[in-house]
Amino acid sequence: MVRRLIQGLCFGSLLATAGADQVPDLLAADSECASEECTLNALQRHALLKKEPVAKMYGQCGGAKWKGPTNCEDGGKCVKNNDWYSQCEPEAAAAAPAPSPEPAETNKAKEETEEPAPTKTMAPLPARPKQPVPKTYETLNPIIARGNFLYDSVTGKRFFAKGVAYNPRNEKYDHSFGNSVQIAGWVDKCVPGTPKGGYWGYTADVIEDDKEEFWTEDLEAMADMGANTIRLYNLDPRKSHAKFMKKAASLGIYVIVPLTGKDYGFLPAFPAPECYTKDLEDYGNVGVNLLGFAKTLMKEFSQYNNTLLFTAANELAQLDKNGYAAFPCVKAFVRDLHNYQADCAESMRKVPLIYSDVDTGGGIARKVVADYLTCALDSDADAVDAYGLNVYSWCDETYPGDGKADNFQYSPYKDIKQDFEDFSVPFIFSEFGCNLGKFKTKCPYPDGRTWPDVKHFLGEDMGQFMSGAIAFQWSMDKEEYGLTLSPGFLAGQDKLYLLDNYFNLQKQYKKYDVNSTWDAPAGEVDKCSFVPSDVAPMEYKHKRPACPSKELWMKVQHEKRVDKVVDWSASWPSWRTAVNFGWLVPNMPFPFAIA
Ligand SMILES: *[C@@H]1O[C@H](CO)[C@@H](O)[C@H](O)[C@H]1NC(C)=O
Ligand SMILES: *[C@@H]1O[C@H](CO)[C@@H](O)[C@H](O)[C@H]1NC(C)=O
């Protein structure tokens, strides 16, 4: 179903111009669509869409003074009532009346781009303090999951991942896209440069040994920012990553390693084990022996002490509502990966597997999906060992109330606490750092985000159930989330440039630390099986959830309007069973081309 990858990205117009065989190329290369509405690379548009909050059904989505979201939630369309008020209405009802405001904007944008471009020069960027010589570590101990916390397996100290997402694409700023162009009266003062190393794109393996000259200074600056964890996105299992892992370890940095490639961590709504072994052209070939792909990465990265977690899948339902029918595939995939770890237990460290969900906000889906992926359906092996949420709801606002300037009770994280405070496995924000709201980036990006939420992660409000948070993201590109400008991003800027965004996060990461109340006492440290009840003055009450009832998983899939409701209680055969019974050919092609 090629359509799946394309719909919602370029609204179908790619389909008109591309044959099925071209689609993986379209996604990998920075291709442009033929139609005007779709001049963005599909991945860029996805990235934009996924970061933007949406207005609720029948909520306001536009109007002269409106500063909130202008896109509607799934199934809704923004309908203009008058110049002052537009509201979200169900798509079917909205189909006929009321012109959307888009055509006018498109024309305006077009007029602007047709004006002759004035020659611009750029003022030099403000000077930065010299980076100190980084602190280095001789050894770094593996981190283990116990109950719903992470611990240093040697010292027994509780571990909190102060993280940053690392996916530099070398995508230079070219004024065609980004938040700054949407700010009335904003005069852009930037001149794009030529990124060092050229354009890499979303799916590049940015940490392979051959890219050492690019990632070395990034790693050192991350360490100095106070980060102890990096989240990665796309790796090529045919490449070596030994140099990167060693350098990261020497700086005290752990790494969250993706086991899926090419896409965002997607798995199709298709029975296991074919959903992660078979070459499914209709799914953009994402499933081409994904199990072999993942095992190869597991084998390499399990040997490094500083591999923190393996991401088994990510944001299944972000690109496609039918992701809600594909969670059984995640469970089966996780089970087969756990079986592989068990088979290799003598020579392979059991690194915890995490699933990273898109934050769907209120409603039942967030909790039902989390319970499903952490429950034991057939056995513990089909449950993930840790859980992540990619959260973009605290947009640099403060939430005043009850005489406090920044009151957690009024913040969007309060609901998340409700859903996850009694969670059975370590819970992290696998991405955070909304850049909408009061703050908008304006190239060359003065001020930046202030990260007021960090103190809550580590403090009383969330410190009892969170084990990490990954700031999105290290490098600037068209999405404008960057903490830094990669060398050559702007004209005349040849070195890595640290933005105010970076220094603001540094302040937060260095100021707050994980509460030592739950560190393991010395006597417990050598035990292989300690649980929080042994090590901390807190009651161990975080039991594995029961798997959601049929009523609940039907409700979620119906609400999300999946094309075909899938049975979440079915047990699917493992890869090995399928091979033994001759349903599958064991030697799937590998290695294979990945973009
Ligand atoms: C890896 O961790 C073990 C403890 O489990 C430690 O003895 C060893 O020195 C560490 N290795 C490195 C390279 O840090
Ligand atoms: C650590 O947590 C305990 C229990 O919630 C609390 O009493 C204590 O004040 C916390 N300490 C710090 C430094 O936040």
Automatic annotation (TrEMBL):
Gene3D superfamilies associated with the record: Glycosidases
Organism: Symbiodinium natans
Lineage start: Eukaryota, Sar, Alveolata, Dinophyceae, Suessiales
Residues annotated as signal peptide: 1-20
Gene name of the encoded protein: GAS2
InterPro entries (alphabetical): CBD, CBD_sf, GH, Glucanosyltransferase
Family indicated by similarity: Belongs to the glycosyl hydrolase 72 family.
Protein name: GAS2 protein
Keyword Glycoprotein attached: yes
GO molecular function: 1,3-beta-glucanosyltransferase activity; cellulose binding
Residue numbers spanned by region Disordered: 90-134
Presence of keyword Lipid metabolism: no
Taxonomic superkingdom: Eukaryota
Record key words, sorted: Disulfide bond, Glycoprotein, Signal
Domain CBM1: 53-89
BP-aspect Gene Ontology terms: cell wall (1->3)-beta-D-glucan biosynthetic process
GO cellular component: a single term: extracellular region
